[in-house]
Structures are given as C-alpha cells and as structure tokens.
Design brief:
The complex is a heterodimer of chains A (250) and B (499). Chain A has 250 residues and is α/β, with parallel strands linked by helices. Chain A has ten helices and eight strands. In chain A, strand 7 (195-201), helix 10 and strand 8 form a beta-alpha-beta unit. With 499 residues, chain B is of the alpha+beta class. Among the domains of chain B are: 1-48 and 444-470 and 477-486, no CATH class; 225-413, Helix Hairpins. Chain B has helices at residues 2-7, 16-25, 27-46, 68-75, 85-93, 95-107, 127-130, 138-148, 174-221, 223-271, 274-305, 312-338, 343-424, 446-471, 478-484; strands at residues 8-9, 13-14, 50-59, 153-157, 164-171, 430-431, 439-442, 490-493. In chain B, helix 3 (27-46) packs antiparallel against helix 14 and helix 6 (95-107) packs across helix 8 (138-148). Residues 63-67 of chain B have low confidence and may be disordered. Classes of the chains: A alpha/beta (250), B alpha+beta (499).
C-alpha cells in the first residue's frame, strides 16, 4: 500500500459499493505515536513490523497474537506492531483484547478516550477506547457478548463490520483454555483471522503448549504466520485452572 | 526428536555451542555432577590401600644339552619343545600350582606374620585372624590360601630379553610381599621339577611296556632260539668247514699215497712173471718143507735117542716119521730142482713178493682208508649243507625279528637315558639370585584417577544434560525455538518498552 493514498480511498477499497460508508473521524496524523519511540529494541521491532507490513501489503489485515499465558508480552507486541503500523501510515488500527484493563494496555487505556462508533450496517454502536486517534482498543468481551444481546443481531456480520471498519486489526487472543471452554463464541471472530503468531516466552513456554495452540488454530484453518520469541522473563499471569486429577486422562 | 535436532550439527555432529548453553542453563547439574564425581574420586584415591610390590626376574630357556625337556623330546624323536610363556602362565594359573604354594606357605613359619587380605580390603588382617574360621584345620587353611593366593602374584614378560619373565608379588605389607615372593619362587621350581619328573616317569613306563611287548613278539617268532641256532650253526659250520678242509687234504694225501702205492705195487709186480710168482710160491713151499723136514729129523732123533725102550708102537711111529721124512725130502728135492731162483733170488723175490703183497695190502688199506675218508667227507659235506640250510631258515627268522630287535635296542637305550635324566634333572626355570626392592604405590595413581574422573564427568554431564534437556519441555532461546519448530518461521523477538 502506498502511503500517499488517501484514507477515504482505503475505505472505498475495502467496502463494497452497496454498503454505506462510515464517516471516518480519524484525523490525519503525521508521524507515529510516542510508544513507537519508547521501544527498547528498535531493530527487532523494525524487523518484526516489516514482516507484518509485508503481509498487510499483500492484503492481510487481521493479525492475531497469542501466547501461552503471558498477556503482557502479547500486549507489548501488539502495541509495538500497532505503533509501527501507525508510524508507517495513517491507518485505522484496532486492537481487540479481553484484557484491556490489565497489563500494559491498562496504562494506555487510562490515557485513552472512550468513544462510541456506529457500525456500518445498523445503529449498533461499538464502545471503543481511542488512544489519541492512533489506535482504538475494543473489548473482546463486547464482541463475544453480541449473541447475548436482545436484539436480533447477526454475530458474524457484526464481526465483519468491525473488520471492515478498520484498516488493521490486532487480536490479542485470550488463553487457549478460555477459547476451548467456549469455542462457538470465538468461532465467528476466528473466521476473520488472517494469520496467527504465537509468542514463546523464554524459560517459560513449553513446547507442548505452543504445539497445542498451533494445532488448535490450524484445525480452524487459520494460518500460522510464525513464532515470536520473548526473551524477557515474565511471570505467567494467566494460568489455566488445574484439572481434577482424574481428568488428566481426558 | 525435534528437541534432539537442536543438539545435532551438520559438521560437528554435536552442536557444542548449544551444548555449552545447555550446560549453562542447567548450572546446578553442571556444578553438582563434577563436584560429586571428583569428590568421590578424591575419596577413592585417599582411601586406597598402599600396595607393596616386590618382583624377581627369571628365565626359562636353557641350552639343549642341559635342558631336560629338550633331551626328552630328542629321545622320542619330537621336535624340540621348549618351555614357552604360555606354559609358564598356564602353570601360574593352575590349581595344582596354587596348592604347591599353599603347601609351602603352611610349612613356612613366617606365614603367621603375613597378610593375605585383598588389595582393596578396608581392614588389613593377618593370616591367623583372617583364617580363624578354619579353627586350626590345616586342610581348610591350605584350601583357603590356595583360593586366594592367585590374586597376589602376576607374571609379566620382558620386552627386551627373549624368554625372560618377571614374577611380581603385591600385598598390603612389605614383609608379606617378601615372604610370598620367596615361597612362590620355590613353588615354581618345585612344580616344574615335578612336571619334568612326571614326564620322565611316564616315558619310562611307556618305554618299559613297549620293550616287554616287543620282546613278547620276538619270543613268539622264536627269535632268541634262532639267534642261538645261528650262532651254533656258524660255529658248527666253521668246524665242519675246517674238518672238511682237513679231510679233503687227508683224502688228497691218501689218494696220492694210494696212487704211489699202486704204482709201487705195479712196479713190484712187474719184477717177476707169473713163474716168479710160482717160484716165489715154490720157494715158500720149499721153505715150508725144509722146516717140516728139520722138524721131522728133530723128532726122529729125539725118538732114537730114546730107542732102548721102544715099543712096537714107538717103532711104528719112528718108521712113519722116517717115511714122512723121505717123502718130504723127495718133494724138497723135486721142488728144488724145478725152481730157477737161488736162495738169494728167492730171498729177493720172496721179499719182493712179500713187498708186493704188502703193497697190495697197503694199497687196499689205503683205498679203504681213502674211501672211508671220502665217505666221511661226504657225510661232513652233507652235514655242512644241512647246517647251512638250517642257518638260512634261522637267518630268515632273524631278519623278520631284526627291526623289532633294533627297536628294542633303541628303547632300552632310551630307557637308560631316561634313568640318567631322572637322576640328574634340574628345573628349567632359573630365577635371579636377587629380587628387586620393595616398591610402594597405590593401585590407581592420581593421574589415572583424575583422568578417569574427568572422563566420567564429561560423559555424565553429557548424558545427564542431554536427558535433562530432552525432558525439559521449555524453550529457552530463539535457536531452540527455531529448531523445535522447524516448519514455522521465527519472525523475531517481541518488543520491549522503556519505562
């Protein structure tokens, strides 16, 4: 994608001519946000970001980041990538996470402005947290909660609306055990995943855990982009509840 | 196996860099294992018993002339069978040899002051204490020593000198090493002597048996009697031949004499003719008549002298005698008249006649003698031929038995040699007069212990680290992540933010 192209042009590119255009309230920005310059390992970010940018240029927009229970690492990765993309061009970037108020996101959420954006198809508004119009944070739980709404809303369509609204979406995937507990709820969202990246944390992540995540998502035909290595030691925060001893055979 | 791929390398097989990282990762193991192994090695080294070695050299090759084993080998026609290193080692390991040592040790009073504790024993005990379980039973003591003794000595061959070996004794005290060395040395000599003696004894038995067997064979074919007969026959033949020669000579002489006599007879016979012969007869008759006439005359005279008392009978007798006298005179005269020979001639002729007759007689005698001699000669010849033919038969018998006889001779020679060897044999294991000094050392040197500990440490570290790594499911670095998930790309590292 050429950065000289206008944002409206981008919207037109992704939206079908029959759909209404959603007015963009994103101001044209020059340069990236401050987090881009707070990165400690710029070279790695650049390498990482370039890889994702290539995918973006080839047409992918929905990038999923998962790990084996180290959400801080996931969040930092997403922030880093979002900052990179933001620095690259004035793009509408969404970060969808179920952990907005914990970890590294918490600081950013605190500094963000809560907004509602009307989705394209209906009057359904989506509550978001906009960080100085650089990137929007969406609570994953809201999306998961859509089927529970009293209104007769098409869940998949809603997800598609979100996908279509943004230029780049970063999914901060919950732990595998949560998805496995209610796969139907996550299924529509997973259908929109273009690629999955798995973070392996130094001295913490087990090979089996990575393989589990991989095999789970591959069973949904989600392509695995690759692995990310987190060299910074982190305490595992989201630990799956222990199975009863007799369930180890299940 | 995915994890295992991380350890392997295309060029060096083992990825040593990664392995070094693993060692650093499992620092606890890397620290504990060497400490434990080296600690144990140090403990092992320090708790080793000090072993005292004493050794003595010996040779086992002798000159063929004085080596009993080679002499025996020569006698039985075998190739020279020298004692070899393998033989010596076999002796040292044989149970009989150990029994020999234990017998000598039991007879040695110093045995009570030595130790036969194993070289790795924690507590060193003297033999009375060590074998107290035998309760003074000599047989038990002997068996116990015999079972243990092999661990205290060894044999080593010399790299420089051929047929030289070294007897080495190791015990836990210097005195024990000295005593054991002496006894084992004596045991070697004694054992070897017994071996040689046994060999000689067996050889003697075999030889004797063979000799008897062969002698029986000779008896069966009548060799001895044939031998005597041949000897006797030869003697008889010699005397017969001598007799025959003598008789031939005599016969020859007799023949010549007979021929001479015959010639003489022929010659004397020619001196007169037939008449000479009749004259010779007449002369003999004349002589006879003359004699009768003289006798008659003597008788008549004798009667006449006593005529006074004649009877008619006496007169008749005288008359008859006178008549006979007259008749004989007439014959005498008549015969005298008819003969040509004189008294001398007649004496000559009669002597010749007598000689001719005697020659004839002699000729006949000599002929008889000659024929007797010839008969005797023929008899002797026949006898000689019989003796010769009998000798030939005996010679055939001797020829049949000759190889056996020669074999018996060889065996008897061998037996004699063996008897000489038996009385003069010496051991072919010669020990040096002086043994080496006592040398103290620990079974395993420091260097060996250290090297072994190092090797074990390296191996254990490798193995344990490998196992630990294989069992460790966690991912520690990017390389490992990449190797574990080779079909996935490792995009990079997660970003971190400065605070």
């Amino acid at each position: 994608m050429n950065s000289s192209m206008k944002k409206d042009d981008i919207i037109l590119e992704f939206n079908s001519p029959e759909e209404k255009k959603i007015p963009s309230n994103k101001k044209k920005q020059s340069g990236g946000n401050s987090y881009f310059y707070k990165v400690a390992n710029h070279a790695e970010l650049y390498k990482l970001g370039s890889s994702y940018l290539e995918d973006f240029k080839s047409g992918l927009k929905s990038f999923t980041i998962s790990s084996t229970g180290y959400y801080n690492s996931q969040q930092k990765t997403i922030i880093g990538l979002a900052s990179f993309f933001d620095h690259y061009d004035d793009l509408k970037i969404a970060i969808i996470s179920d952990n907005l108020f914990n970890g590294y996101f918490q600081e950013i959420i605190t500094a963000s402005e809560q907004k509602k954006i009307p989705l394209f198809v209906s009057e359904y508004d989506l509550n978001i947290f906009s960080f100085h119009q650089h990137f929007d944070f969406i609570d994953f739980n809201i999306i998961l909660d859509i089927p529970n709404k009293k209104e007769n809303i098409d869940y998949e369509q809603r997800v598609n609306d979100i996908i279509n609204y943004y230029d780049v979406i970063f999914w901060d995937m919950p732990e595998l055990y949560k998805i496995q507990a209610d796969p139907e709820a996550y299924y529509p969202a997973m259908q929109s995943f273009d690629s999955l990246s798995i973070i392996a944390s130094k001295s913490m992540t087990k090979t089996g855990e990575v393989s589990s995540i991989r095999s789970f998502f591959e069973s949904y035909n989600i392509s695995i982009k690759g692995l990310l290595f987190d060299p910074f030691l982190e305490v595992k925060t989201n630990i799956a509840p222990k199975k009863a001893w007799w369930k180890i055979f299940t | 196996m995915k994890k295992f791929n991380a350890i392997l390398d295309d060029t060096t097989i083992i990825n040593f860099v990664f392995f070094a990282r693993l060692l650093k990762r499992y620092i606890l193991l890397t620290t504990v294992i060497p400490i434990f192994i080296f600690g144990y090695a140090a403990y092992y080294y320090s708790t080793q018993n000090i072993v005292y070695i004493k050794n003595i050299n010996f040779t086992f090759k002798k000159d063929d002339s004085s080596s009993p084993s080679s002499a025996i080998a020569t006698l039985v026609g075998e190739k020279s069978s020298e004692l070899t290193e393998s033989d010596i080692i076999a002796i040292s390991k044989s149970p009989d040899f150990r029994d020999t040592i234990s017998n000598l040790l039991m007879a040695d009073p110093n045995t009570q002051k030595i130790t036969l504790s194993g070289l790795k024993a924690q507590i060193i005990k003297m033999t009375p204490e060590q074998f107290s379980f035998c309760n003074n039973n000599q047989e038990c003591f002997k068996n116990a020593i015999s079972e243990r003794i092999s661990g205290f000595y060894s044999l080593k061959s010399s790299d420089i000198i051929d047929k030289m070996m070294k007897l080495e004794v190791k015990t836990l005290t210097p005195f024990s090493s000295s005593v054991l060395l002496d006894n084992i040395k004596q045991s070697f000599i004694k054992f070897r002597l017994n071996q040689i003696k046994h060999s000689i004894t067996e050889q003697k038995k075999i030889s004797l048996k063979l000799i008897n067997q062969k002698k029986t064979e000779l008896i069966d074919i009548g060799y001895e009697s044939s031998l005597k007969k041949v000897a006797q026959g030869k003697a008889a033949l010699r005397s017969l031949v001598a007799s025959i020669l003598s008789l031939e000579h005599i016969a020859q002489k007799q023949k010549m004499s007979a021929e001479v006599i015959q010639t003489q007879y022929e010659q004397t016979k020619k001196i007169g003719n037939k008449n000479i012969d009749s004259d010779i007869d007449s002369l003999e008759h004349l002589a006879q008549l003359k004699k009768e006439i003289s006798n008659l005359k003597a008788d008549i005279n004798a009667l006449k002298l006593s005529q006074s008392s004649f009877t008619n009978t006496d007169k008749n007798i005288i008359k008859k005698l006178q008549k006979d006298l007259r008749v004989k005179n007439r014959k005498y005269k008549r015969l005298r008249k008819n003969t040509n020979l004189t008294s001398n001639d007649s004496n000559f002729i009669s002597s010749k006649s007598r000689q001719s007759k005697s020659l004839e007689f002699e000729y006949k005698i000599s002929k008889k003698q000659m024929s007797k001699t010839v008969a005797e000669l023929e008899r002797l010849i026949v006898k000689r031929d019989n003796v010769i033919s009998q000798n030939e038969i005996d010679e055939i018998t001797l020829a049949k038995g000759k190889p056996t006889s020669e074999y018996i001779t060889l065996l008897e020679n061998k037996l004699m040699q063996l008897k000489i060897l038996d009385s003069t044999m010496i051991s072919d294991i010669i020990f040096d007069k002086k043994a080496s000094g006592i040398r103290a050392f620990r079974r395993t040197t420091k260097l060996k212990v250290a090297m072994f500990a190092t090797l074990v440490t390296l191996f254990t570290l490798f193995l344990v680290t490998l196992i630990r790594y294989m069992l460790d499911p966690r991912i520690y670095d990017e390389y490992e992540l990449q190797k574990t998930f080779e079909d996935l790309d490792v995009i990079g590292k997660t970003p971190d933010f400065n605070s």
